[in-house]
Amino acid sequence: MADVVPVKVFGSSSIGVYIAVNNKMALVPFDVPEKIDENIREVLGDTVVRASVAKSPLLGIFLVMNDNGILVPNIALDEEINSLKALGLNIGVIQTKYTALANLILANNKAAVVSPILEPDNHKIVKDVLGVEVFVDTIAGTPLVGSVAVANSRGVLVAPEATDADLKKLENYLGVHADVGTVNRGRSFVRGGLVANDRGALVGWETTGAEIMRILSTLFK
Fold it and tell me: Is 121 in contact with 95 (CB distance < 8 Å)?
């Protein structure tokens, strides 16, 4: 059975702003403590890779990844992009003024839901790099589709503001079960407090037992 383990990163429960994961690897900031590496290896089964974007530790805000590729904003430095290319995944640089890509794109291995505010020229890059179908839509009344949901190949957890119609759309797009939930004692921006792959999840330290049970039943059914 999958594990959902509460952790802190730099003393914060907003762990999803620092970590980006797929089923193969987890990208973490250079100065994250070794204890987080251990949690990632034990719970997610991932190889841990140190990285940065524009010399920032906010990998979970800037990067979108699935098992096929990684989307990177154009503020990334050449050496950072080259380091990511060395990992053996497709790398796509998104030319945009909206550099917090993970707020604008929700993806698993089947599809990506892209915010209507992301420039249309980027849709093909998303499709080709992640190897998925692309759907342009809002979720839970917001264009910040990546901030209010977390998806893997088994489910998608969405902010409680999502309507039944939102859940049905997401199930059709992503090909998985969808349900609502929160992290860190009721926060709706679930991606900020949750990183998950198909094997398990890390959540912010403040996440309650009831919230963890909902994550388990949604993402690991």
Answer: yes
- How far apart (Å, rounded) are the C-alpha atoms in residues 161 and 24? 31
Give the other-Cβ count within 10 Å of 147's Cβ.
24
Cβ-Cβ contacts under 8 Å for 210 (sequence gap 6 or more) = none
Question: Taking the chain (221 residues) in consecutive chunks of 10 residues, what is each chunk's mean pLDDT?
Answer: 94 98 98 96 98 98 98 98 96 97 98 98 98 98 98 98 98 98 98 98 98 98 87
CATH of the domain at 190: 3.75.10.10
The domain in which residue 48 lies consists of 3-219
Burial (CB count within 10 angstroms: exposed 0-12, middle 13-18, buried 19+), residue 55: exposed
Q: How many domains is the chain partitioned into structurally?
A: 1
